[in-house]
Write a structure and sequence with these properties.
Radius of gyration: 24 Å
Shape: globular
Structural class: alpha/beta
Strand order of the largest sheet: 11-10-9-5-2-1-13-12
Number of strands: 20
Number of helices: 19
Distance between the termini: 20 Å
Bound molecules: 1-O-alpha-D-glucopyranosyl-D-fructose, calcium ion
Low-confidence stretches: none
């Protein structure tokens, strides 16, 4: 397998709004990111992914961009960004920016022009359609943030498409001039010196021509949009064009955000011979606990299913494309609360989850706070939420789908994106050291116990454990490049897998149970020559049969 720096890298994701506020306005900012570069360096990450920092009216916290070449007012200035870039590079940290080109803000100059008239030169930059002959929206697609995916513009008596919020109109990728402008903008950032892009909803760029209705979905007025806007007919053509025009000219890394894809699609997006992207964020393991594909539901983890999904990605992409590895990001609840145990086994399960992910093949992503075991917060009413998704879903489910407000709050307390967005917990002082003002979103009340200051110097902390996981990856190529084999596929409590590379074998042993579980040690690893690389309990007796303690994790290397 071809080696590459982006295969060996570990990425740390920063959501600037919630990272560190330096001017007391309650909103994190770029000077705050600069201040914490040494913290990221200490952890050992080599790449810093910044969620969108561009000019934005913030209907969706920066995912609605009104100027791709300017910085959001609350975050600072272009001079702050330039300083961040050079300070990061000084420390050997690369910068990965968010590229949001499925849609812009409705305040973007292109859209302001586009909506003026049907013959405006920018009209075709967006997706406009007449209502149905009988009246009403052009098709039955629902927006990701609830309500129809179309908004009416009375100026030209037409509707525009927005897969997300109404202030996020979808760009029309069929328009060549628009594509050229996007490529020019990407080159502008690369020429500035950034090191790559994480590409937002990149598999949504191409839609089925004619934008037909989707198959009706029972219990709603909407149809299934997925077959008409995910992996559309021209998507690979667009990405290959982008690669030819921009990406191939720079030594940069790319990761596409691609919901609803299979491993077959994953090979097409990331295949080394395809000239599209380096890797993608697939979502199958994030949908594992949805009930009948429904996000706003609550269900316990089915470990057998999770193992099947993750192992399939490991095996299928091996030697063909490349995986990204993640549990958490700014759209997901906290993994220690979701797949671990944030009560009596908080520390053990956070370390176990880190082990389980970081010993796989792929490029690992750590989301701010994951390295200190930050947990979900508790929200008491819808007024405590800020997120456009949570608010839209609350409205839709309580008004149109017969759910009680109480039940919806219970579900949001399990599922909401807000759990990722509560401010970073730096220390035990007021507001967790995030701000001296009023935080834009409430701080999780467990910050006196769970904070970075408590953990950085403590060798037995979750932070130190993550540091160790990263340094092991740097030391042992088998962790980056080795083949993957799942053991005990049917075991409901244990996630056990082996890696192999150039005569070495690695065994990763993870218990997802809050009770003790018996485990029959693979014979080869009983041998004295197998070395324990890391574990989340002190002593680790080896025997033909061992009793694994709650959420125990161990990694052994042989050869
Ligand atoms: O998310 C796209 C996406 O498909 C989902 O994960 C989305 O966040 C939502 O949870 C669907 O239920 C990306 C960004 O990561 C997200 O923050 C943005 O809100 C969205 O695109 C729009 O730009
Ligand atoms: Ca600020």
């Amino acid at each position: 397998m071809e080696k590459a720096w982006w295969k060996e890298a570990v990425v740390y994701q920063v959501y600037p709004r919630s990272f560190l506020d330096t001017n007391g306005d309650g909103v994190g900012d770029l000077p705050g990111v600069i201040e914490k570069l040494d913290y990221i360096k200490e952890l050992g990450a080599d790449v810093l992914w910044l969620n969108p920092i561009y000019k934005s009216p913030n209907y969706d916290n920066g995912y609605d961009i009104s100027d791709y070449k300017d910085i959001m007012d609350e975050f600072g200035t272009m001079a702050d960004f330039d300083r961040l870039l050079s300070e990061a590079h000084k420390r050997g940290i690369k910068i990965l920016m968010d590229l949001v080109v499925n849609h812009t803000s409705s305040e973007h100059a292109w859209f302001v022009e586009s909506r003026k008239s049907t013959d405006n030169p920018y009209r075709e930059y967006y997706i406009w359609k007449k209502g149905k002959p009988a009246g009403g929206v052009p098709n039955n697609w629902e927006s990701y943030f609830s309500g129809p995916a179309w908004s009416y513009d009375k100026n030209t008596d037409m509707y525009y498409l927005h897969l997300f919020e109404e202030h996020q109109p979808d760009l029309n990728w069929e328009n060549e001039q628009m594509r050229k402008e996007v490529y020019e903008m990407m080159r502008w950032w690369f020429d500035k010196g950034i090191d790559g892009f994480r590409m937002d909803t990149i598999n949504m760029l191409s839609k089925t021509p004619g934008l037909p209705d989707g198959e009706p979905i029972a219990g709603t007025v909407y149809g299934n949009r997925i077959p008409h806007m995910i992996n559309g007919p021209r998507i690979h053509e667009y990405l290959q064009e982008m690669n030819r025009e921009v990406l191939s000219k720079y030594d940069v890394m790319t990761v596409g955000e691609t919901p609803d894809i299979t491993t077959e699609d994953g090979k097409l997006y990331t295949g080394a011979d395809r000239h599209e992207l380096h890797m993608v964020f697939q979502f199958e393991h994030m949908f594992v606990d949805f009930v009948d594909g429904e996000k706003f539901s609550v269900a316990p983890l089915d470990l057998v299913k999770l193992k099947q999904i993750m192992s399939r990605w490991q095996v299928e992409l091996n030697g063909v494309g490349w995986n990204s590895l993640y549990w958490d990001n700014h759209d997901q609840p906290r993994v220690v609360s979701r797949f671990g145990n944030d009560r009596e086994y908080w520390e053990e399960s956070a370390k176990m989850l880190g082990t389980c992910l970081h010993m796989m093949q792929g490029t690992p992503y750590i989301y701010q706070g994951e390295e200190i075991g930050m947990t979900n917060a508790v929200f008491h009413s819808i007024d405590e939420f800020d997120d456009v998704e949570a608010k839209g879903a609350y409205r839709e489910y309580t008004q149109n789908r017969g759910m009680s407000g109480e039940e919806m709050i219970r579900i949001l307390n399990f599922r909401s994106r807000e759990h990722a967005r509560t401010p970073m917990q730096w220390d035990g002082s007021e507001n967790a050291g995030f701000t001296t003002g009023t935080p834009w979103l409430k701080v999780n009340s467990n910050y006196p116990k769970i904070n970075a200051k408590n953990q950085v110097k403590d060798e037995s902390s979750i932070f130190s454990y993550y540091k160790n996981l990263i340094s092991l990856r740097k030391k042992h190529p088998i962790i980056v490049y080795g083949d993957y084999t799942l053991l005990l596929p049917e075991d409901p409590h244990l996630f056990v897998y082996q890696r192999s590379y150039e005569g070495q074998t690695l065994l990763t042993l993870c218990s997802f149970a809050a009770e003790e579980v018996e485990f029959a040690f693979p014979k080869a690893f009983l041998d004295e020559s197998s070395r324990l690389l890391i574990s989340n309990y002190g002593d680790c007796p080896k025997a033909e049969k061992v009793t694994l303690r709650p959420y125990e994790a161990r990694v052994y290397l042989l050869g």
